[in-house]
Amino acid sequence: MSPSKTERKPNEKVKTDKKDAQNIAKLFRNGDITEVRVPPALDEAVRDVCRARTDASDDLRRSKQRLNAFLLRNGHRYSGKSRWTPSHMRYLRTLTLPDLVQKIVLEEYMQAIDSGIDRLQRLKDKMNQILLDWEWEPIVRALMACKGFQEVAAMTVISELGDLRRFEHPRELMGFLGLVPSEGTTGTRRRQGGITKCGNSHARWMLVECSQHYRKAPMISTGITLFHKLQEVDHNPPKLRRARLGPLMPLRAACGCLSHYVRFSLGSPDHGQLPSKEIRIKQPHQNHKKNKPTFKTVELRRGARTGARPALGDVMSLSCLDR
User: CA–CA separation, 23 vs 7, rounded Å?
Assistant: First the structure.
């Protein structure tokens, strides 16, 4: 049970084992106990490695910011196109400062950046090694079929979410991540706001960052990715009324397909025919001459295999339609 979601009155200041047992029995009888999943030890270890990689990335970013601030204070500006490229690093290493003490500070900042890059690469290599023996490796590979996901992002999301078979519908997954809009409805007036931002903030941050790739057309050839039809439709995505919710629309489709893939192919007691499941995303059409809503339909269907764990190519077969 979840201790943070257990009902407790503010005026209850006496806590004993007997009172706790009685309270738990009453909650269990009324069906008010919220169940939580206890992850295995390996899943927690993988999650710690992913969070350590995020910490290393944050430390590297702060080191770069300190170096930029130091150079700006002393009147040194880089005239190139972009920073932290090989040409920019060569410029920093050949930079001449008038004072010897300032040269020492520059060298220390450069060493911190070099050590941060090495630390980040070491953690990334360790994550790739851990992925080979992890039980959720097929799910990570399936998530990598989505645009914007690679090993680091996919492992971070799966390690934070854990077993996706506990979600009966993609809406539950999106609600668990806090990616659904908040709502304050009274009577006949309906008012919706920004996303709720409840649940796991680390997984939500990673999903939102990866969903930004759907704003631009993919620079890949047709047939490389399993979601090529979905990407062809989303080359020119229509603008929503609220721009901050725009990247969530293709993200919901990806999370929904992944959730149903895990639930029906890995969690069902009978690995029979996977039922067709449609995830409809209603978006406004750019041409307002026809007063009809446009739906982008993503249909997840099972291939020819039955009786065993399906192959990735058989399961993640998608078709996108404009209706």
Answer: 9
List, for residues 11-52, the tens digit of each pLDDT value: 888 888 888 888 888 888 888 887 777 888 899 999 999 999
Q: Using alpha carbons only, give the angle 122, 50, 1 rounded to the nearest 5 degrees.
A: 155
DSSP secondary structure string for all residues of 252-295:
HHHHHHHHHHHHHHHS-SS--PPPPEEEEEEE--S--SS---EE
What are the tokens at 196? 């709720």
- Which has the closest alpha carbon to 208: 160, 252, 161? 252
Over residues 241-263, the pLDDT tens digits come to 343 445 555 565 566 566 556 65
Within 8 A by CB and 6+ apart from 276, the residues are 299, 300, 301
Bridge partner list, 277: 300
H or E element at residue 299: strand 294-301
Beta-bridge partners for 282: 295
**Residue 85 token pair:** 């490229």
Going edge to edge, which strands form the sheet with 294-301? 277-283, 294-301, 317-322
Hey, how many other C-beta atoms are within 10 angstroms of the C-beta on 92? 17
Lowest mean per-residue pLDDT among 81-95, 166-180, 192-206, 235-249: 235-249
Q: Phi and psi for 297 in degrees, rounded to 5?
A: -105, 125
